[in-house]
Structures are given as structure tokens and as C-alpha cells.
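Newbie here. four chains, one complex. Structure please?
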Amino acid sequence: MIDKSVTSLEAAMGGIANGASVMIGGFGTAGMPDELIDALIARNIGDLTIISNNAGNGETGVAALIKAGRVRKIVCSFPRQADSHHFDAAYRAGRIELELVPQGNLAARIHAAGAGLGAIFTPTGFGTTLAQGKETRRIDGKDYVLELPIHADYALIKAHKGDRWGNLIYRKTARNFGPIMAMAAKTTIAQVAEIVPLGDLDPEVIVTPGIFVQRVVEVAPAYLAATA
Amino acid sequence: MIDKSVTSLEAAMGGIANGASVMIGGFGTAGMPDELIDALIARNIGDLTIISNNAGNGETGVAALIKAGRVRKIVCSFPRQADSHHFDAAYRAGRIELELVPQGNLAARIHAAGAGLGAIFTPTGFGTTLAQGKETRRIDGKDYVLELPIHADYALIKAHKGDRWGNLIYRKTARNFGPIMAMAAKTTIAQVAEIVPLGDLDPEVIVTPGIFVQRVVEVAPAYLAATA
Amino acid sequence: MINRFNRDQMAARVASDIPEGAYVNLGIGLPTMVANFLPQERDIFLQSENGLLGMGPQPPAGEEDWELINAGKQAVTLRQGGSYFHHGDSFAMMRGGHIDICVLGAFQVSIRGDLANWHTGEAGTIPAVGGAMDLAVGAKQTFVMMELLTKQGDSKLVETCTYPLTGLSCVSRIYTDLAVFSVGSTGASVIEMVDGLSLDNLRKLTGVPLSEFRGEAESRQ
Amino acid sequence: MINRFNRDQMAARVASDIPEGAYVNLGIGLPTMVANFLPQERDIFLQSENGLLGMGPQPPAGEEDWELINAGKQAVTLRQGGSYFHHGDSFAMMRGGHIDICVLGAFQVSIRGDLANWHTGEAGTIPAVGGAMDLAVGAKQTFVMMELLTKQGDSKLVETCTYPLTGLSCVSRIYTDLAVFSVGSTGASVIEMVDGLSLDNLRKLTGVPLSEFRGEAESRQ
């Protein structure tokens, strides 16, 4: 019997080592796997490459990871925010490398990795400084930039419900990068609000089939924990 | 009020003209939009380019379209089947052009069109006769072939339920090419077993958002028609 | 005396150019206000880059669901008939040409429709691009909403952008507090001006060649 | 006297090499039979290219649902925990390296693992490729199941394929009626033979260089 559920956040982090590349899902508050990130910080490893849409807000999540000095490089579309002070400080001090990627190229490159493409010609960024030095091509009258897939060793994502085979469904806009990051990482670790018995998830509505998920850990949502 | 539902199969075909490129969903019996194809045949136009996984079986669907002499070219992965005699005869007589595409390249090229990519480097077909004359590249130690997106003027697909905004859900393996063809065609026409009121489809389980669909027509499934 | 459009009036002006049935993405900041002026009885489909179509207004205070947010990370709602999807599909919508109109803010727009809205290029600033480049090149039409002049009185409608570009030849309309412009391969033309402003005034304020708008043929091809 | 494996025995032999937890795609024809020999108590995930994962056995006669079929267009069932998805996602699974093992039939396989299974190349035949090329290059391991010799007695394990190729250096194991082979960059080796057959016999039958298998280090890298 295959059971991908793990019983602790610590166990969910097993194997992540110095120098790993780690995708982290979430867009704003929605879909941010905060508890997995806390467990990653607790693991006490560094030199990480993080692939995520933002570079952290406030004091939690990716911001805390950066504050703890664990991140060598971040690949993201929107690092600068009102409360991204931990990233800002690390960046200004030269302690963190930034690869700035337009959000659609980020999504498409992650998807390309998951789908096994070697490279893609994308329309976004042509003629801008973000395409400097990159190969370009005019195809059917339109200009494109060649972009490489983004793979990762691990993906940390947050979903709504999961089962022991790793099938996942999401909730509202918390879906965002989860499904494509799950496809692009060697090991995908999903925190879910609830692990349900196999067969409870309707096969028509499963968004991420279990083939893309290696570990599932149940983390009660904060609002439940707060009232518990 | 936007209402994409049309009340007749004839109306669903509006605008399709000689020389159009038409994607047709379905894989085997599942998801084949037979009634839309019949309506296309009734429209009495020709010189069509058909993009579909197969080249028709028996006497119905794509086979009937080929038999009627309406198809100039077919782009597909698996034309030869036990009962593909109408395609076989047209091909042997030189009356139909065949572009044979590995099924995964077919899916990826259709997806690339829908997603706005200019071209993709795909692993499939490298070193085979199906990649002859195509640009290749070694990327990160693996060989790839450059493939162009496949766009179409129209897509004819079959879904399970739809609403007036064009949102669609599918049933079991009838989903197959429907969602990606809907993305790649200028005008997507979906036949559905049932048009439901707006709001009846759960926003979490809609597979094809209405943005990808221009017309929806209700066609009772054959097993209902037979008992009616 | 010149009657500037205020921000609400600018938003209402943009909204009046959005037809029923349009799929529309509103950028963060000023463009978000356009939603307030779309007539409720018209089916207009708002897309948000973070994976929703059919975005509705903000929920009442206290009823926010922080897993239902827009690109600006504000709590929103979903209209009946809306749907959720992942980032891959969301940007496929934009980049695949399925969005009819996007409305963006800008630092500068050139008379040929080049857009600069993501980075001032100043030393020491931290760049952030988000989905701006994808929207600019992906939407069928890109509208810009901005004040025409900087606080220093410089025109943001320019012959050639000096700020780093977001996209080339992508903007077709510019809605400002002083005038509405069409821009594109044939240059800039003026669709309308606020009361009290003349074409000559506007030429002086902007310093760019401006013609009178003569219909859609002059707009972006 | 040589004890050939029959088709059931070949299928059982392949099945015995599929570990619990594996994601497996079985090609149409002979490989489909492998499903009959996977132990029910083991969680092995069968993927079908037309958009399902967790494929179960054929339904009883009369209970077919023709919207639930496999790649060979036969009616199948879905196991509890299975899921449906579209063709884009299905081939992303294959091509993105998520399928552990695929089992395919073949016309010829070379000692370095080149595969020919889609087209005889004969004049007048109509080619059809389906998903074979995607599976061959996409799965982590490609197993071939075939009779070792043609009806004319020619070996289908060859030094160099003469039929049009499906994929280069993609096959790692060949399961035949006479022997099981490992193939790859270091050539072909024999993992096991039917009773009554010697390595020398096998060399004569195939006409290709064959060594004894010395463990996984010799298999595909």
C-alpha cells in the first residue's frame, strides 16, 4: 500500500540539503505554505535557490527564510513590496542574488519543466532589459525570446485536501502556482488542510494527480488552530 | 447579458468557410463531437484542414467528413486503424494530405498555440523520420526538436455540461483534447449534453473557463435520444 | 480654465470604452478603479492574473476570504459563473491572446505605443515586474491610464521612452486627466480633450506630434 | 528442447519487475496483458495516454462506459483514487519524466536501446505513430515486450535497426519468449534464458554480441 502522507512537518522536510533548489507556491496570502517554510527554516540548511512569485512579506514565510540567511538566490517576478524589508536589506547588502522573471515567463518556464520541454520561445520581455543577452526569433511576424525551463529539487505547496496517493484539490485563488510547481520539482511536498480517505476526492475534480506529489502533510488552517 | 448558447447545430456552424482549419476533439469514441461534424458536413464546404488525433473510423464523424471529400489535409497522430478505410482510400488516391505528428507533440503544439508560445523544443521524435528537416538542439545534455504551435480557425469539441458564459466540464476520458483545443482555436464550438443555468457549475471544478469558448449547443446524448 | 478629469472620471471614461462580453484585466493601482464604473447589467469578465475569471467587487469588511484575492492582494469576490485556475492557465489566457483589453498604469508611453511601467531604472531601486510585461504583449488591446504630466510638469506621453521598456508597440489607447489619445504605428492622435484645452495647448504640454483622431483606422493594427 | 515463454508468462515476467508505487504506461497490444499479472495488493498506478491515472480492469460485459476507455480504445474502469485529465497534462506526465516505466511492443530493438516500433517503412503502408515516440523518450525506463524472432526466424534484437526509429537509446530491458535482455550504452546482456537455451545458442539465434548480465550497473544510465 502506497501512503504518501507523513505525520510531521519535520519528516516532510527529509532529504532537503544545502544548495537545494526549492519552489515555493503562493501568491500573496493565498496558497503560501507557511508551516512548510517554518519547517524548512528549522532544518537549518542554507545556500538555497528559491523559486517563488514574491520575495517575502513582513516577518513570515519566504521573508523569514531570507532573514535567517538561508537563501543564496531567488528567482521571482515581484520582489519589491511595501513590507519586503528582509529581501530589500539582503539584496542591497549583496547577500542574495536576484533573477527577475516576468510572471508569465515564470509560470511558462515552470510548466515547461514539468512537461519535459527543452526550451520555449515566449513573447514576453522582447525588447526589454529582462531579455538582454537572450536569443530572440521572429516567428510568423511576431518577436519571441528563448527561455529555458525552471526545474527544482523540491516544491513546497499548499493545497486544500489531499489523499494518500498524493491527489490534491485547492481552494479559490490559493491554487495559483501549486499545480505547475508540483509538476516541475523532483520531490513535491504538499501541506493540506485535510487528508481524506482514498476515493473521497472526485476523479473529475482532482487538480493535481498524485503522480506529481511525493509527500502530503496535514496542517490545520490557522483559523482552526486559533480557535482550538 | 452574454449568452453563448445557440439553439441549433446549423447556427453553431455559422461562419465556417471553405479552406478553414478545424480542430476536432475526441479520442476513439470518447469526446467525439459527432453531431457537430454532421452539421459541418451539412454545411457543404470543403478544402478543410482537420486537426484531430485520428483520421476517422467506420462511417461516422471524421470518416464521413473525409468520405464526403471535404478534407484537403489532416494533421493527426494515428490515422491507420482497422476501420479507417475512408481515410486509407483518400490517402492512397492522393486526395488528402497527411501531416503525421506524434501524439504528445500534437498536444504540446496545440497547447503552445493556446498559451501564445512562438515555438517549443520537444524531446519527441528526435532522430526519427518525423523530425527530418526540422531544427534540433542539444540542451542540458538532451536532444530536442523545434516544433511550431498549431492554431486553428475553429475547434469542435464535446463536453458534458456548459453554461451561457461557455464554462465547460467534461466526463471521464471524453475530456482528452477538448480543453487544449478550446484554447488554440479562434472560435470554439462545444456540444454539451446539458446547458445548465449560470452558477450551477462549481467554480472550483470548471475545466474550461468560458473565455476559451464562443458557442455552446445542447445535444442530447445518443443513449437518451434512442430511448426518447 | 482647464477642467482636469479626476481619477473617478478617468476610470469612468475607460469603462465607457469596454463593451459587453469583453474579457478584461485591470492592473494594480489606478486601473483597479475602472471596476467601479462597469455597469452591473453588462456581462464584462474581469480576469485576475492569480487565477480567477469573473472577479466581483470587494467583500464587506469582516467578510474577507484571504484565499480569494486579486493581483493587488486585496480581498475580492467571485461572480456567479466565475472560475478558478492555476497560474499556467492564467498566463496562457493573457499570452495566448484571449484577453480583449488590459488596463495598465504607466511611467511613460511613446507615440508608437511603447510602454514603460515597471522600473524607473534609477540606481538603487529594486526592480519588480510581476505580470505587466505579459499583459502588455498578450492582451488584444492595451489601454493605459495615467496622469499626463509628472509632478515636475514633464509629459509622460513621449516620442521615445527613456525609462526601461515593458513592451514594444503594445499600447493602443491612453486615458489621462487631460485627454484621451490613440497611439500606434502612425503616431499619436487626440480622441478627446477636457474643456478649455486646445490641440495646440496639448502639443505644447506634451512636446510630441499630435493629430486629430480620425477613427479606428489610425489606431493599433 | 527449448521451453518458450508463452504470452502470459512473458506478461507475468514483466509484471514481476514492476515495484509497488510505480507509475506505469502499458502500450497497446501485448503489453496490455501485463495488467493481468500485477498483484492486486500492490499499489501500482496505470496511466493511459488518453487522460486517466489509476486505470482498473475491463468492466463486465454490458457495463462498458464508452467515455471511459484506454489508449487501445477498449472499455476500462477507474480504481478508487484515480483521476482524469486532458491530453496536455497526460503527455506532460510522459514527456516530463513522471512515468517510471512504459512497456511497449517492438519490430526491432538495437543492442544500444534504439527502438523501432511504429512503422515498417514498407512502400504503400500508411504510417501511424500515436503516443509511442512520446512514451519511448519520456518514461524513466522503457521496457520492450516482443517475440525474439520473426516468423522468418530473424532476430528482432539487432545491432542496428533497419526499420524507421521510434526513439534513440531509450530501451533498457527486453522481455521475449526466449530470454530477458538488458540493453544500453554498453551493449546487450542476458538477464535470463528459458530452460534448455545456452548463451551460445542465443548468440547464434540473434547474431549480436551478448554478455552475461552483471547487475544494474550495465543497464541504461
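Moderator note: The mean pLDDT of chain A is 95. The longest helix of chain A spans residues 103-115. Thread marked as resolved.
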